[in-house]
Amino acid sequence: MSVFDTKPWLSAYAPGVPQSVQLPTDSLVDMMDAAVTRYRSAIALDFFGATTSYSRLGDEISRVASGLRKLGVTAGDRVALVLPNCPQHIVAFYAVLRLGAIVVEHNPLYTPRELRHQFEDHGARVAIVWDKLVDTVVAFPKDIAVRTVVSVDLTRAMPASKRFALRLPIRKARDARAALTSARLSTGATSWQSLLGARPLRRSFPRPAPGDTAVLQYTSGTTGSPKGAILTHFNLRVNALQGAAWVPGLKPGVEVVYAVLPMFHAYGLTLCLTFAMSMGARLVLFPKFDPDLVLDAARTSPPTFLPAVPPIYDRLVRAAESRRVSLSSIRFAISGAMNLPVATVERWEEATGGLLVEGYGMTETSPVAAGNPIGPSRRPGTVGVPFPNTEIRVVDPEDSTVDRGFDEEGELLIRGPQVFSGYWNRPDESAAVLLADGWLRTGDIVTVSADGFITIVDRIKELIITGGFNVAPSEVEETLMSHPDVADVAVVGLPRASGGEDVTAAVVLVPGAELNVEALRAYSRHRLSAYKVPRRIVQVDELPHSLIGKVLRRQVRAQLLTNP
């Protein structure tokens, strides 16, 4: 028996938060239909000032689902989405689910090599792609399964005045337009508008069941190789319910949620694509985070709920002070994906008068598993306490049958309805993290206080978290090792004062070579997404290795921290 079986954290819950939520019997499709029915005339989406009502959103979902069916999409098929935040992303997500098919989310900032690896893994035959990346996907080799690419022009969802401004014959307009669209339909692609022109799907068309797979969300998980985490309708639906229960005082049909988090990330997916839609919120969409865009929107559609990561809160406060824009409408702010400095909390709460609390989760928990209470019992510096319906244990990292007690370091295990069902086509790696009795091995070393607050101490998995994204050291190491000047390399994360980590490479050069940091960074940028490129590259004489030749990253990290 674990000391945590008594769930001491329940006494820390904010008033009104239940110990458990009623487990859903509906799918995400049913959830969206209910929102469309209940909030028909309310604004669902806001994109640069162009608004979409819930009624219209439901109609577009039905039409695109019908269009996808004509393209041959059937229940169980994987459909790849390679899109930034935009109205088409929400429509595509729910249209795929309406057919009982599976959404596969992709980062549109990935390099062609990174995208190709994921397409090879999941085998989607249909892809809905930002038009700037269509040529990349169309050019994939024939042995990759994708046969139909749907091209999405983001600007078609913008107000007419904005589209007109983008076409002005001035450099600023041309640069802005080039950042948003390719302005042409690539050969071999189907237009998004043709899907919108389809007749609505008949209401009697079969619907997915709660236990069906809804999303494959790629993650480095607890090892360095990206894998597709299998998330069911039930997993994602219950996490949305847990999130809604966690925030007392939410007003269904009234809240304004800012989608500054990318929705291809598990954090943004749940907080924006499911949680916000489930409560009839007005979702204000940003293709990327830009403080000026956010503050411009705040003047006309003040936000009330902001999920983000610490650097965004810091930048937004500074920008708001500079432009003298009030952020006082934001009652609730949820931080995740990286550690939240206490100084950031203090600056934010002084500027807004609202609350900023930290949560904890991972893609494998859909993603939220714990959070600081929304109220006086919150404890900055910790990631809070387990969500309703969620159990935790702390165990010996080398033997999960040996339990640790309060305030003792150990690996965090999680069990709950939001825990995923495994990795796509990876039975061995699934078995390594999902124990027989339903517990998920997180790979995080924690301590838990006697009243249930969790503090992250370290990570077994050695992933680097930068800007809220996971970076697998092995992937960066492989890239640098392919450079002719590099004889050996270890990549680690070093903490930065603003929160998160800097990707840092310790390199051993071949005899006669001289360190050229900018050349190595430029080499990496051609092969890796920008957030994976090392911010720091340090030359060392040698690296520590285990008896089997594996570089000992923890020792490297300790040395770099001692001798920065």
UniProtKB/TrEMBL annotation:
AMP-binding enzyme C-terminal domain span: 475-550
Signal sequence extent: none
Assigned EC number: 6.2.1.3
Keyword presence, Ligase: yes
The entry's keywords: Ligase
GO molecular function: long-chain fatty acid-CoA ligase activity
InterPro entries given in the database record: AMP-bd_C, AMP-bd_C_sf, AMP-binding_CS, AMP-dep_synth/lig_dom, ANL_N_sf, ATP-dep_AMP-bd_enzyme
Domain of life of the source: Bacteria
Domain AMP-dependent synthetase/ligase span(s) in chain numbering: 34-424
One Pfam family in the UniProt entry: AMP-binding_C
CDD domains for this protein: FC-FACS_FadD_like
UniProt key word Isomerase: no
SUPFAM superfamilies: Acetyl-CoA synthetase-like
PANTHER family tied to this protein: AMP-DEPENDENT SYNTHETASE AND LIGASE, LONG-CHAIN-FATTY-ACID--COA LIGASE
Protein name per Swiss-Prot or TrEMBL: Long-chain acyl-CoA synthetase
Lineage, broadest ranks: Bacteria, Bacillati, Actinomycetota, Actinomycetes, Micrococcales
